[in-house]
Amino acid sequence: MEPHLQLTANKSEALQKIRKHWVSRTAHDIRGPLFAGRGYARLLLQEPDVTATQRKYAANILENMNRLAELVGALGDFPSESALDLNPVDLRDLLHRALDTMRARATLHLACVPNEPVWTVADGAKVSTAVHKLLTSLVDFSRSDARIEVRASQEDDEFVLRCFASGGPATPPDQPCDAPDIDTASRILRLHGGTASAGVASTGVVHVTLRLPLIESFR
What we know:
Helix content is about 50%, strand content about 20%. By secondary structure, the chain is an alpha+beta fold. The strands form two sheets. A five-stranded mixed beta sheet has the order 2-4-5-7-6, with helices on one face. A two-stranded antiparallel ribbon has the order 1-3.
């Protein structure tokens, strides 16, 4: 390798190591005040003299601090060479293969799917698992006669997959329903710098969304 190319490669590798240590140290430093805040919020909720409004605010603070604690914990999953087997992946092909496995379980309507390959660099096996888990969770959470609408597109530098299930959730009306379980998909996508979300609209439509950064392929 030419000396200047070797130097560039060494700098890039060094910068990646510095970033990893920086993230680890920052996450550690955040935990102190974060856990203190959670502790005080719990103590406040246990006080007998707290008004209903104060209790509501304290519960909201605790809920958001718990969410922040999850995000701080996720910083420990900083992407590394050992965690991801990176290769060029055609997301359009990956999506079609995932949808093929779901056709026996649900009525699918491909409202918007790319006609051309959508390439990125990712751990194909992990992303495939995330997409399959996301679709499975949506189908499991929705009514058996639900119609699944699939919309996939490239938005700026991201691949975005949105799926909607009409007919509402399968949960009986007298039981609480939250949203499809997307924990596994979220962890995998977070490793790639992506996200997953889910919910139930006021109209009863169940939805899941996947966002994955498009990294320039080194094919």
